[in-house]
Amino acid sequence: MVDFSITDFLNEDEKYIFNILVKYFKRNNIRAYVVGGSVRDTLLRTPPKDVDIAVEGDVQFIIKKLPLIDKVIYHERFKTSSVYFKNGVQFDMITCREETYAKYGSLPEVYPATIVEDLARRDFTVNAVAYDIINNCLIDPYNGIEHIKQKNIKKIKKDSYREDPTRIFRAVRYSVRYGFSLEDEEEILRCIEENTFSSISYDRIMKEIVLMAGEERWKQNIYECFRLNIMKSSENFLIENKLFLKDCLNIRLCSIYRILNDSNVKNIFKNNSMLEKSLKKAFREYDRVEIELLKCRDNSCIFNLLDKCNVYHLILLGYNKNLTYKLLNYMNLKYNYKEIKAKYILELGIEKGRLIHDIIEEVKRVRLNTFLEIDENYLRNNIGEILNGIEHKNT
Ligand code: CTP
Predict the structure, then answer these.
(1) Strand partners, 73
(2) In terms of DSSP bridges, do strands 80-85 and 69-75 run parallel, antiparallel, or are they unpaired?
(3) Distances from the Cα of 206 to the Cα of 20, 141, 179, 239, 274, angstroms
(4) pLDDT tens for residues 174-212?
(5) pLDDT in tens, 48-85
(6) Strand order in the sheet with 130-132
(7) Ligand 1 atom closest to Cα of 166?
(8) Which long-range contacts (CB under 8 A, 24 or more apart) does 69-77 make?
(9) What's the CA gap between 319 and 21, in Å, rounded?
(10) Pocket lining: 154 vs ligand 1, CB cutoff 6 Å
(11) pLDDT tens-digit readout, 116-147
């Protein structure tokens, strides 16, 4: 018996389901364990994000017989499942497994195993403590409890970071989140120098960056990445965007992207299937538009350039103080600008076709640069001058 209660941070609905599961596992002699973050966080006296249960045996078969199941999403590749119960509670349930890596950075092959073997394939000692549901005790083969007390992130397997380089990001994330030190810092630095990340896909790296950016202490995560040379930066600080105050994941990613200094990591931001299309488009076009906008000398140039940009692009440009007035100007113009209707031009006897489009564009240019109120009367009285303007532009 241990002085540890895994249900301390569960809400009433979760406790209800958990107690039903305990009875079910006991009655059917199923070896089941709470594992990973939920044990770590309960030991740290902080509410866990989710509950992971590992069973020895075929999880898919065991789940089929559980009471109160609403829905199950099962992933055969890693024999993991998300189980949704009728009262809205969700637990993750997995088959205890062993892992082998064909080569560094590849996804592992998995085989059903015992809890001891399952703990051996995990990332850090602090994540390899299991709570034995049947025997009500903790299993701690790698001294994880002691390392939690010592505030230390420490790998389990010799080649852990090379086999799965995403663990470097995970180590940073946990060390920042809990204020733990990185026991393996020297090895991590060596791995980064040897370009370990080249063995994994852009998507897997981007997923880790997104997880970092989603944490409460996200800026510290990114500074740690700079310190460890995982990313390089042109500036020391992630500044707030004065024009767009809302704090959300995509805006955080914009502020990170803006100060990145290495094309490798920039390419990861631009070419992945993790992020929204419009965000990636903004990353791809940011440099070009920034240069063009710096050169713009009149309102219509600013308007035409920025009107093709999406909101993330405007946010990225908003970090450059030299462009603030041009962005504010654009927003003001955008808010107040109404295009002249084609029917007024047709009423002047101009035939349908390219010329109508050219007149609309010319009126827009004059209007944006002079703030003249251009209505149908103005158009009627000045059509000759407008046509001259177009002709002049085309010669
Ligand atoms: N794990 C691992 N190696 C990885 C990813 C996960 O060994 N590359 C193991 C760890 O034991 C981890 C568990 O799988 O505790 C669950 O992973 P995850 O849900 O990502 O992390 P949590 O520990 O639950 O932490 P968080 O609070 O960030 O969700």
Answers:
(1) 82
(2) antiparallel
(3) 39, 32, 23, 21, 7
(4) 999 999 999 999 999 999 999 999 999 999 999 999 999
(5) 999 999 999 999 999 999 999 999 999 999 999 999 99
(6) 69-75, 80-85, 90-95, 52-55, 32-35, 130-132, 137-139
(7) 8
(8) 77/107, 77/110
(9) 52
(10) no
(11) 999 999 999 999 999 999 999 999 999 999 99
Q: How confident is the model over 1-25, as pLDDT tens digits? A: 456 899 999 999 999 999 999 999 9
Ligand 1 atom at shortest distance from the alpha carbon of 173: 28
For strands 90-95 and 80-85, give the pairing.
antiparallel
Length of the chain in terms of residues written? 395
Please give the DSSP secondary-structure letter assigned to residue 197: G
Round the CA-based radius of gyration of the chain to a whole number and report it.
29
Question: Can you tell me which atom of ligand 1 is nearest the CA of 123?
Answer: 7
Ligand 1 centre to CA of 114 (Å) is 18
- Kindly state if the Cβ of 127 falls inside 6 Å of ligand 1: yes
